[in-house]
């Protein structure tokens, strides 16, 4: 198993905490967020970890990871950042992809690792209470997420019109099965750089858009469902939810 953590963004909504460091180094429950991720990965036996930095990436050199760099972090988005680590996608190994601004409990990762579909996506069924703790209107920041009866995702990433359109909330943790990693790479390479895909070109594409394109192309993308057990950090107020019913530090589980 090989993991790639995406941590190139500037984290402007977290300023001044990100004035001199990337989001993944902002402290949560006593240590940088990325340290919690590395701890959970290590507990699962995942030691081949790569991280794609961008903004203030010089502050990431002490981490026990193979560091890659998105030099165009100001003009690009998650999908471009992921494929800045193309060399980490070689070999016969499952590929785990994680956002750098999330933390998750071992049980969340275990659900993803146990899923044997070509692409597995961690998703939170109990998202509504968590979103309600973060904002007055949960739908203002939620994304659509629909599944069939077998847990196969049919739609994600759209602005939802109602809570019923959000069967779970995508949380930024994905596994690509080892026999499909090269197909995954080739699918991305086959996207035309200057064509608009749901209003986004290849360089500015969000991960949910890329996943939806895979689904539209016939890929089986399944949900690895959890009930809370994670946090994402976009605003300073998100830090206050550490060690809560939504996520508890690994050392306190």
Automatic annotation (TrEMBL):
Molecular function as annotated in GO: kinase activity; nucleotidyltransferase activity
UniProt keyword 4Fe-4S present: no
Domain MobA-like NTP transferase: 3-126
Keyword list, A-Z: Kinase, Magnesium, Nucleotidyltransferase, Transferase
Bilayer-spanning residue ranges: none
SUPFAM superfamilies the UniProt entry points to: Nucleotide-diphospho-sugar transferases
Residues of the signal peptide: none
Highest taxon, organism lineage: Bacteria
InterPro entries reported in the protein's UniProt record: GlmU-like (IPR050065), MobA-like_NTP_Trfase (IPR025877), Nucleotide-diphossugar_trans (IPR029044)
Nucleotidyltransferase is among the record's keywords: yes
Protein name, UniProt field: Choline kinase
């Amino acid at each position: 198993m090989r993991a790639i953590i995406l941590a190139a963004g500037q984290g402007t909504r977290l300023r001044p905490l990100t004035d001199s460091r990337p989001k993944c180094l902002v402290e949560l429950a006593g240590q940088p967020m990325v340290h919690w991720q590395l701890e959970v990965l290590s507990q699962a036996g995942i030691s081949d970890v790569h991280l794609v930095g961008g903004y203030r990436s010089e502050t990431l050199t002490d981490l026990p990871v193979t560091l890659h760099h998105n030099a165009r972090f100001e003009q690009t988005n998650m999908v471009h950042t992921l494929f800045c680590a193309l060399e980490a996608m070689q070999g016969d190994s499952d590929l785990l992809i994680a956002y750098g601004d999330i933390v998750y409990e071992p049980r969340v990762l275990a659900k993803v690792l146990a899923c044997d579909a070509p692409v597995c996506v961690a998703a939170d069924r109990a998202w509504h209470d968590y979103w309600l703790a973060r904002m007055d209107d949960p739908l203002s920041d939620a994304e659509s997420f629909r599944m069939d009866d077998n847990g196969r995702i049919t739609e994600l990433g759209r602005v939802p019109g109602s809570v019923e359109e959000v069967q779970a909330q995508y949380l930024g943790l994905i596994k690509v099965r080892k026999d499909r990693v090269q197909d995954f790479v080739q699918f991305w390479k086959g996207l035309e750089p200057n064509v608009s895909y749901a209003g986004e070109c290849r360089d500015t594409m969000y991960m949910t858009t890329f996943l939806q394109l895979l689904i539209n192309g016939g890929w089986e993308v399944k949900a690895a469902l959890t009930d809370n057990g994670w946090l994402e950090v976009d605003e300073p107020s998100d830090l206050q939810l550490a060690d809560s019913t939504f996520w508890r530090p690994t050392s306190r589980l």
